[in-house]
From TrEMBL:
Residues 358-379 are annotated as: Disordered. This is Squalene cyclase C-terminal domain-containing protein. Keywords: Membrane, Signal, Transmembrane, Transmembrane helix. Residues 1-24 form the signal peptide.
Amino acid sequence: MNVRRSAAALAAVAVIGTAAPAVAADSSPSPSPVLPSGLYGHTDPKYDGVWRQSLALLAQHTAGVRPAAKAVDWLAGQQCADGAFAAFRAEPARACDAKVMVDTNSTAAAVQALAALGGHDSATAKAVTWLKSVQNKDGGWGYTPGGPSDTNSTSVVAGALAATGLKPADVRKDGRPGGKSPYDALLKLALPCTGGDAGAGAFAYQPDKKGKLAANADATAAGVVGLLGQGLAAKPAPKAGAAAHCTDSGKATPERAAANGASYLAGAVAKNGYLTSVLPGSTDQPDYGNTADAVVALAAQGGAAQAQKPLKWLEKHSESWAKQSGPAAYAQLIFAANATGTDPRDFGGTDLVARLSATGPAPQSATSESAKAKAEDSAKDGSSGFHGWWFVAACLVAGIGIGFLFSGRKSRRQP
């Protein structure tokens, strides 16, 4: 949905990167990439360019800011002829071939951003057609076309479908009446409430090799939002309700599974107000991005009041994380503010909108030029400087699927 997003596993590693193992013996610094002028962020976009650009543009739109035309054009120009997006294409003028690794997460995030901005109906229609063409028989999606379905990828695609006016429940493999929908896939990945499991009501990222489901907070936040038919910039529940509780009684429905997932998330943040990271070397450390995702999920399911504890924690503690992690992190916090009715221009004293805008080309309409200028110095330092391969290896060592690594709600095993 991500990711989940999300922190973004990129963001989580940026904060705890010194504890992550290196992959190559050569420790010499890599040359700084020449970044496109329309791109947000200052780090190598090889693994997350489209993702972070999509989140940045969507967050600006959510905050009432009109992004720079060249930033939107850059994102639209990343699309392949068949409608799919890869994480990043250094030479977008060249036609996509078999070597271009397109993925569902980048495609779905781009759809959500371009649909919100408007004027890109042809591009989003082609992207949705491609997404439908790679839907699995169980109704879900994996990170790569044909890969096993996972909660995070299925949820971010569901958000893309909803963003283009489709009902995810009606999108079935090959259009067959008896085919499976994204909701069918997500319900299969939900843990039951009974059995005394600490993960009661949660979602798994994927079943393990033996078919067992393990609770994953990141996947749970994504699954809740996906089953509610919402996307990355989810809105709060129209009617505030009592705190969700987990129950298996009655028919398994998307609404019931979303409530069960929210119940799990509420319990996970009840003690400290945040979710913890599971990346190597980060035991017991806060996971800022996943916590932001949990805020969105809790508010989308039960209203802003249900998300107040993790929201207040983020307002107090997330500034340094976002500064170091870059545009996707600022976007996730703006989504959390949006879902709870919080002012993103005064998020714990930080103007998230100005900080985000300062990581890329100046928007066509800025809320405050002085705030933007004030943010630029700190935003220039908003680069973690990590390099992709050791990050991917670290995640694989931790047993984390590549599927949602760069979706903001990356696929991490969350106890």
